[in-house]
């Protein structure tokens, strides 16, 4: 498989030049062009509207701060997607640390049951399965865990993951295979 080299469009090149020159209208144009894809990606990863909105803001702050470092090695959309994924992963890490600190808080464990679909047995079984899978995922190495999570839980394609992580598609496939194998072993134990 050959190396894919992206070329940015003339519109992107001109827009980036304007943004680097601190043209506020150019940044607003960038925001309007990419706000929906950034929000959709954040919502797919974080699963909450409020968190996705926070990730949207954080992503565009990071874009504004880091646009001068954009070299054009990838498409602008790929670069923005990578920033979005990084912001979301950092939010998940912070959330996880916060949950560990307040684990004893009873409000974290209280919830209103969903009375519309599943029986109590099915719900308990599903929760147990989710806990086992989550526990097994945390035992995987960072590289394998992120690829398995992005592909199997978040629905990203091999190509999207490769572009976002700036690695070859073959590397994504390999990490996905070995990550799944390790996950199977952890769940079988």
What is the helical fraction, as a range of percent? over 70%
Termini separation (Å)? Answer: 37 Å
Beta-strand segment tally: 0
User: What is the strand content?
Assistant: under 5%
What's the helix count? 9
| CATH topology annotation of the largest domain | Rna Polymerase Sigma Factor, Chain: A
H/E topology pattern: HHHHHHHHH
In CATH terms, the superfamily of the largest domain is: RNA polymerase sigma factor, region 2, helix turn helix motif
The whole-angstrom Rg is 20 Å
Query: Average pLDDT, to the nearest integer?
Result: 80
The appropriate CATH architecture of the largest domain is Orthogonal Bundle
CATH top level class name of the largest domain: Mainly Alpha
Describe the protein.
This protein is mainly alpha-helical and 189 residues long. It has two domains: 1-103, Rna Polymerase Sigma Factor, Chain: A (Orthogonal Bundle); 117-189, Arc Repressor Mutant, subunit A (Orthogonal Bundle), CATH 1.10.10.10. It is 75% helix and 0% strand. The chain has nine helices and no strands. It has helices at 10-20, 24-46, 49-66, 76-101, 106-109, 120-139, 142-153, 158-165, 169-188. Helix 3 packs across helix 4 (76-101). The longest helix has 26 residues, at 76-101. The model is unreliable at 1-5 and 102-110 (pLDDT under 50).
């Amino acid at each position: 498989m050959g190396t894919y080299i992206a070329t940015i469009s003339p519109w992107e090149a001109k827009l980036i030049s304007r943004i680097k020159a601190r043209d506020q209208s150019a940044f607003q144009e960038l925001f309007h062009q990419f706000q929906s894809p950034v929000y959709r990606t954040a919502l797919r990863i974080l699963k909450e509207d409020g968190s996705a909105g926070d990730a949207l803001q954080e992503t565009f702050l990071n874009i504004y701060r880091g646009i001068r470092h954009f070299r054009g090695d990838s498409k602008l959309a790929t670069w923005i997607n990578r920033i979005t994924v990084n912001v979301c992963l950092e939010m998940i890490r912070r959330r996880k640390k916060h949950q560990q600190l307040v684990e004893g808080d009873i409000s974290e464990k209280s919830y209103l049951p969903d009375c519309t679909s599943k029986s109590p047995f099915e719900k308990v079984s599903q929760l147990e399965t989710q806990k086992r899978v989550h526990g097994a995922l945390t035992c995987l190495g960072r590289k394998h865990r992120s690829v398995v999570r992005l592909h199997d839980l978040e629905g990203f394609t091999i190509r999207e993951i490769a572009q976002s992580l700036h690695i070859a598609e073959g590397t994504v496939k390999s990490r996905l295979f070995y990550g799944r194998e390790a996950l199977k072993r952890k769940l079988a134990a």
